[in-house]
Amino acid sequence: MTTTILYDDRATDVSGAHVAQGHLWLSPAELKAATGWKLEEAGLCQGDACVRTQPEWVDAAGRIDLTAFAGWLDQPVLHETEGGDVWAFGPSASSRKSQLFSLEAPDFTLPDLDGRMHSLSDYRGRKVFLYSWGSY
After folding, report:
1. What angle do CA 105, 111, 113 make, to 5 degrees?
2. Quick check: 36 pLDDT over 90?
3. How far apart (Å, rounded) are the C-alpha atoms in residues 136 and 131?
4. For residue 120, what pLDDT band results from cuts at 50, 70 and 90?
5. Closest to 25 in 3D by CA, of 71, 70, 57
6. For the chain, what are the domain ranges?
7. Tens digit of pLDDT for each residue in 96-110?
8. What per-residue confidence (pLDDT) applies to 104?
9. Where is 33: in which H helix or E strand?
10. Fewest C-beta atoms under 10 Å: which of 33, 57, 70, 115?
């Protein structure tokens, strides 16, 4: 069975994932492909950031418990099995907090009434008025 992993801005299909007791176990190669984190001598590393690997994160087969690692990073995890096996990992609470306190809106792109696409970043440095409406 194929498992889909949603991590940061990527969606990766993994065929060798192992799920046990609500935990997602990946080989080091699958972990790197799905998240960008790779197993090194210093621990799990992504760019210049390294986290010392905890013994409970690695099983006898050498697989890494991505769910436990995400918990250590304070990332929310969602697992959905209806319609396929999908795991979604959100940004950490500290990352979300810093984004909120920065008062900088995330970039997005939407069409205008004529269908031309406009990105918020196109207007950086200028005042922008956003109006939204919902019928709910």
Report:
1. 125
2. yes
3. 16
4. very high
5. 57
6. 3-92
7. 787 778 777 888 898
8. 79
9. helix 28-35
10. 115
What confidence score (pLDDT) does residue 129 get? 87
The whole-angstrom separation of Cα 37 and Cα 122 is: 32
The two tokens of residue 47 are 């760019």
In one-letter notation, the amino acid at residue 95 is S
The helix (run of H) or strand (run of E) holding residue 96 is helix 93-102
CA-based nearest residue to 53, from 36, 67, 69: 69
- Cβ contacts of 41 within 8 Å, gap of 6 or more: none
Both tokens of 94, joined, read 């500290």
CB proximity list for 135: less than 8 A, separation 6 or greater: none
pLDDT at 83: 81
Write the Ramachandran bin of 21: left for phi over 0, alpha for psi from -120 to 50, otherwise beta.
Answer: left
CA quadruple 39, 97, 7, 65: dihedral, nearest 10? 40
Q: Between these two residues, 134 and 115, which has the higher pLDDT value?
A: 115
